[in-house]
Design brief:
binds fe (ii) ion, six-stranded mixed beta sheet
């Protein structure tokens, strides 16, 4: 018997390969299916089943390409609305793998159709593949498919069911800490047991449905703008090209950019700041959540070209973008930035500024701080007079109007999002933009700038003509 967890580190999504008697099932396959195929080849397994616990809203499913590569049968919960060929799963249904059984438990909440899978070895339940229901330390978000309160009420009933499982049953979650699908106390660990969760989980031991609904809905981060689109795509997921993307020389890339494509540069933010092709967008793909950041800031329908420090890194960046539904990766800039400069094309730079220097400029009224954290982070504490422009509101950029002589400085909390946001501002024509690359708004306090709380972010002002 075999149970493997395959994590997508960028999105903090967990998927599973379960096998017995040479027959395997893959549960919640991620977009990049190579690891499942590698494990199956290595252990001489036949992937006979691909199972989804729900229609995902945070990543593109790899089920169609995995089924095409293996001939596996696809299973989805009844009521999923999926349009690709599949067998619907209902409460109590069983998928058999040798002497192992995966039994379907209807567990609505995160999504109405959601199911969990209880794995039993020769009749003995030993592992819960929980999907997005019970997670380690917390529960899944209830607001991605439905009204948050209705979702939380349904999830409460589902968790009561799961709470009947024995102490020694392992909990294998659909997400780990860092995912946008989980609650605020989601653990960075990858496996637990029902007994551990009964002792430590933030929400499992709450006394009644009202306190559970309150705990789950009080501090929900903003709903990612890509969620509805991903649900729609995941009802009939694409197969993708399968191969690597074409290498494009700098002059061809320039022509694509002239026609409206966006160059996404996956190098570390500091390297991007030093030099990049003018108009390029900075998406540090060596740090977690690159796909999620891109999904918040960029239109997923736009054609893209990717560039990175190596061909391998560019390929990983392309996969990270496709994994959140960017369908239009046209190719890779051959040779990255050195290839671009060698073709005689110009470079651009973005200046960074320390938190200390920013604090001094704010005191002197010489800078406008553009705070690109999300609205909930702003509400907990922001610098007075700063402008709230979350990544998901970057579409407002054409209307951004600043006082003459005051230079914009972009900051977030750690310097990860500020790189992306500053590149978008420069792309929109604010070539005088600077950014805080190390640290961010919370660090201003140590440099004498008080943060104030408040729910109403100051929206960017619009030109009268807009
Ligand atoms: Fe989910």
């Amino acid at each position: 018997m075999m149970l493997r967890q395959i994590l997508n580190e960028d999105l903090a999504c967990a998927s599973y390969l379960v096998a017995d008697g040479g027959v395997a099932a893959v549960v919640d396959p991620q977009w990049d299916v190579r690891e499942y195929l590698r494990i199956a080849r290595f252990h001489r397994l036949r992937i006979a089943h691909v199972v989804e616990t729900h229609v995902h809203a945070d990543h593109l499913s790899g089920r169609a390409r995995l089924a095409a590569a293996t001939g596996a049968a696809v299973h989805l919960p009844a009521g999923s609305g999926a349009a690709d060929p599949h067998a619907p799963l209902d409460e109590g249904d069983v998928i058999a793998l040798g002497g192992l059984e995966l039994r379907v438990l209807a567990t609505p909440g995160h999504r109405p159709e959601h199911i969990a899978l209880l794995a039993a070895d020769r009749g003995r339940p030993f592992a819960l593949l929980a999907g997005d229901s019970l997670q380690i330390g917390d529960a899944a978000r209830p607001d991605l498919a439905t009204d948050a309160v209705a979702g939380a009420r349904a999830l409460w009933a589902s968790l009561r069911r799961l709470d009947e499982l024995g102490d020694d049953v392992e909990l294998w979650p659909g997400h780990v800490g860092g995912s946008l699908c989980g609650g605020s106390a989601l653990s960075g660990r990858t496996v637990s047991t029902l007994g551990n969760e009964r002792r430590r989980n933030r929400v499992l031991g709450l006394p009644d449905v009202e306190s559970f609904v309150g705990a789950l809905t009080e501090r929900l981060p903003p709903r990612p703008p890509t969620a509805s689109r991903l649900v729609r795509l995941n009802r009939n997921p694409p197969h993708g090209s399968g191969g690597t993307r074409p290498r494009l020389d700098a002059r061809s890339v320039q022509r694509l950019l002239d026609d409206g494509a966006i160059l996404v540069d996956g190098r570390p933010g500091e390297e991007f700041d030093r030099a990049h092709p003018p108009g390029a967008v900075s998406l540090d793909a060596g740090r977690p959540g690159a796909g999620t950041r891109a999904g918040r800031a960029l239109d997923p329908e736009l054609p893209l070209v990717v560039s990175a420090e190596s061909d391998g890194a560019a390929e990983r960046l392309a996969l990270a973008l496709e994994a959140v539904g960017f369908g239009g990766v046209l190719g890779v800039l051959e040779g990255g930035l050195p290839g671009w400069l060698a073709a005689g094309l110009p470079g651009a730079a973005i200046e960074s500024i320390s938190v200390d220097a920013l604090a001094a400029e704010l005191r002197r009224g010489e800078a406008t701080l553009i705070d690109v954290r999300e609205a909930d982070e702003w509400a907990r504490g922001h610098a007075e007079g700063s402008l709230s422009l979350p990544l998901s509101a970057m579409g407002m950029l054409p209307w951004l109007e600043l006082e003459d002589g005051v230079r914009p400085v972009v900051a977030c909390s750690t310097g990860l999002r500020s790189g992306l946001a500053a590149s978008l501002l420069a792309r929109a024509g604010r070539h005088d933009v600077r950014r805080v690359a190390a640290g961010g708004v919370p660090d201003l306090v140590a440099h004498g700038i008080a943060l104030v709380a408040g729910d109403e972010p100051a929206a960017p002002r619009r030109h009268a003509a807009a």
